[in-house]
């Protein structure tokens, strides 16, 4: 990791209007505190109509977006930061846009030769135009049950439902539409659920130890993610060494396939044969006290503040 020669001025963006506002604020505070502990001058602010003018006037060394949801992850903010010539942490706009749209990410990952659960993408307009009953009958005939229904764009498991009974599918699809215009219905794969952070601290991206996720309820829901004690984590994951290596290699390759940079989180299911199945990529993973990437960093024997500092230095270097 790179040693910082002088304190940096850093603006951490957090909050916003998305459904993940509270998570964003917690992530942003943790990042800010970590960088402050390393001697940097950090301010936190919310995105609003004065943001771009404020950044232009302040011209910080680095912007660290901690905005979960569309405002921070769909690529639009990143394109505006690029237009202003500002250094920022995270993937560039085009890559963020591709990864943010789960069906697109699945296609790209499958074309690269990795397994991902079979799925059907269902826009709300199609759901209405072709008739809910007929559409869902076709989905069930093709995918069967159980399936996982989720918004095609979104995070923190909001709007996600595991459907084991056919009669529960309509409600699950409607719930997914609460969080976006398109639902992704995916055949459920059984196995060990893991999440692998990929970070770049100056010598290229590398995979952190896999975090195994065992929610008490059996479903890694929003509550299970952000309520202490609702999920048991094993870091590193309880995988055979050879399986863990395959999963890490897959996570790193998927990060690169999607064109991501600086940090990401790749979510996988490891089946009984040891095959990793790609679920989704997170271009702006949560960095709260219960989040998975920080757990991976600590499991690797690294200091959070030093890692965040080093990632910031890579972002500044890339902007140059």
From TrEMBL:
Catalytic activity of the protein: 2 D-alanine + ATP = D-alanyl-D-alanine + ADP + phosphate + H(+)
InterPro entries (UniProt xref): ATP-grasp (IPR011761), ATP_grasp_subdomain_1 (IPR013815), D_ala_D_ala (IPR005905), Dala_Dala_lig_C (IPR011095), PreATP-grasp_dom_sf (IPR016185)
Domain ATP-grasp: start-end pairs: 106-313
Annotated binding of Mg(2+) 1, by residue: 267, 280
Pathway stated in the Swiss-Prot or TrEMBL entry: Cell wall biogenesis; peptidoglycan biosynthesis
Compartments, record wording: Cytoplasm
Similarity comment: Belongs to the D-alanine--D-alanine ligase family.
Function: Cell wall formation.
Name of the featured protein: D-alanine--D-alanine ligase
Organism: Subtercola boreus
Gene encoding the protein: ddl
